[in-house]
Design a protein that fits this description.
homodimer, about 375 residues, alpha+beta, Hypothetical Oxidoreductase Yiak, Chain: A, domain 1, Ribosomal Protein S8, Chain: A, domain 1, 7-stranded mixed β-sheet, 3-stranded antiparallel β-sheet, 12 helices, 12 strands, about 40% helix, about 15% strand, globular, Mal/L-sulf/L-lact_DH-like_ah (chains A, B), oxidoreductase activity (chains A, B), Malate/L-lactate_DH-like (chains A, B)
Chain lengths: ~375, ~375
């Protein structure tokens, strides 16, 4: 694509039918060796990210997933191995399988164990990118359980007072049901910002805002391009943990949370952790996951819990917004409203991503169906 | 005390024997109606905070605890009531009891259930300040378990895009054992800073640094005194969540974590939550807690886990420090080193706190033993 088209393609978007987009991704995955069930699930998780307004974890990643399948970073046709199992726990070795199907298997096992015993846990080692963590945590909601999902990722974050990337963006997802309110669904990385933001600033040649990242000497990173280059070589510098540089605004807390996720996803699962997890330009490195579910009625009636959740979340939502703000949200509210909108109007996908999908499909003879309104161009969200 | 002495008394400190300081607090609690066991445990938790370098949660709070016992906010001589119990869970109603003893009972129950079943959980409603959350999470360590403790607190934090204090500082503690390295012990509030910092700046008449707090209209709070006054009336304004104002640096993540703690501590326990939790000048309001423990060998051999923890934590500790920094820590390392130092040299207590303790003891005929070196004055840590 000509450089002159870049701006237009990334700034405009179109709407595609969720079902058609999912079927397309499924068929691409099948063409690269996934079986029908794994392909369907993997596609559903990718498209859910776009539908929920998190395009960084959506179909834009399809080419990288395909790259992983082609290079063998992601192994098609392998079955996860059970390392250890108890009435409450399941420890799986994914043996390099696609992340989403083995993660769904693990979360389903945690939920089934929780149904029988009250609580269930599952770890997965030697896995791949599993999409949005919220997908798995939310699986607990319909069972009147609280759901938790975490994963470690390639090292991108710098410890408080440090200079080297020693942990990933290590997300935490936590879901709890309500009755009339939408469910509370927290899904957050434990770094201040994401790697993608550094990349965008590096490409645009803009200086980095304060509070995002540390350079290779532990100072505030300003030059995005040199930081990005250094991070890609693991030569020093990286993202601040949530809370920023040093301890003044709680950067040590984000660092602690990221390490907690690494302990549960990397150490408890028997996978690697910390600085040993790397991505490459063509594929994401292997990672470990942690899942948990527990029944609300271990403590009190689930209906009473949901009613109190309505009060808590309703009061947050109704609390007065600050100057220049229109609403106060709670975690998951904005995402589910976007998902409602996507169900009505289609899933918003940036034009440049649509073009990449069409190209990816063409390589294996899979055609992307036309958008809900391919002629209408919308500003990118 | 004369105003001229204030500076000296808050800036200097002395060392007291941990055992003698604990016995003193125990005897004060007994004089106010706690039984011997509850008084001993409550004193131990308070002094542990000072020993670990967290004086905000230490013996400086003794007068407020005593105030609670005198006004009946903290009820002496009541027994917690079991609301619900399963093989994995215990839901307690503290009925206004002292926070530490009922919290220890709850964490001990979670550990005992985990020993039998793999995992154990406990909630406590209608309780009081329980001290440092790490105390309870760390109880799991010697059992080769991972320990978790949380509590909600009086509303001090403002939601992302909001203006009203709708949640507390809501700490999360998470402890996991290692072999040669010290245990990983995260204990963090989910707000950017603590209420105490606003109070200090208000007293000193200093403008608030950026990133700490929101004023009653949702703007960056600058005037500490007016914010403090407004917060005390719950008239608007309060602490930013971890990650600061808005979403640019992840403030919505800290807000989400604070709400998660409120869901587990306030909603799941059947206690109150959010804006309904208030402190008064003389006593801290009632709160709810959440505790969990689970066996590491539900997933893999605990000895292998501890060995990998050594690698993870050792690599973090050995990672290169940034310019102007001498060391990289992991969560809990600084605190345990201070505890080692306190075991050798005594617990450091600020002179003004020592004076308050002496006065509090004198009211009930309990004498604070002399310090390890009462003549030596040290700069306050």
């Amino acid at each position: 694509m000509a450089r002159a088209n870049d701006k237009k393609a990334t700034d405009t978007a179109q709407r595609l039918s969720r079902a058609a987009l999912t079927d397309f991704c499924r068929d691409v995955f099948i063409a690269h060796g996934l079986n029908h069930d794994d392909a369907t699930l993997s596609a559903a998780v990718l498209v859910a990210a776009d539908a929920r307004g998190i395009p960084s974890h959506g179909v834009a990643r399809l080419p990288r997933y395909v790259g992983g399948l082609e290079t063998g970073t992601i192994v098609a046709g392998t079955a996860p191995q059970i390392l250890h199992e108890t009435p409450l726990s399941l420890a799986l070795d994914a043996r390099g399988a696609m992340g989403a199907p083995v993660s769904q298997q693990a979360m389903d096992a945690a939920i089934a164990k929780a149904r029988t015993s009250g609580a269930g846990f599952a770890t997965v080692r030697d896995s791949n990118h599993f999409g949005i963590a919220a997908w798995y945590a939310m699986a607990a909601l319909e069972h009147d359980m609280i759901g938790i999902a975490m994963t470690n990722t390639a090292a991108l974050g710098v410890p408080t007072h440090g200079t080297q990337a020693m942990f990933g963006t290590n997300p935490i997802a936590f879901a709890a049901p309500a009755e009339r309110e939408r469910a509370f669904v927290l899904d957050m990385s434990t770094t201040a910002v994401t790697y993608g933001k550094i990349e965008v600033y590096a490409r645009q040649g803009q200086p980095l805002p304060a509070g995002w990242a540390s350079d290779a000497r532990g100072r505030q990173a300003v030059d995005a391009a040199s930081l990005w280059e250094s991070m890609n070589r693991y030569a020093g510098g990286g993202l601040h943990p949530l809370g920023g540089a040093g301890t003044a605004l709680g950067g040590h807390k984000g660092y602690g949370l990221a390490t907690m996720v690494d302990i549960l996803s990397g150490v408890l699962s028997g996978h690697g952790f910390g600085q040993h997890l790397h991505d490459t330009p063509s594929a994401m490195g292997r990672v470990g996951h942690f899942f948990a579910a527990f029944r609300i009625d271990m403590f009190r009636e689930a209906s009473e819990f949901r009613r109190d959740m309505d009060q808590l979340l309703g009061e947050l939502r109704a609390s007065p917004p600050g100057e220049g703000q229109s609403r106060v949200y709670y975690a998951g509210l904005k995402e589910i409203e976007r998902e409602d909108e996507a169900a009505e109007s289609g899933v918003r996908v940036a034009d440049n991503v649509v073009e990449a999908l069409i190209a990816e499909g063409a390589r294996v003879g899979v055609t992307l169906p036309p958008g809900v309104d391919r002629q209408r161009r919308e500003p990118r969200s």
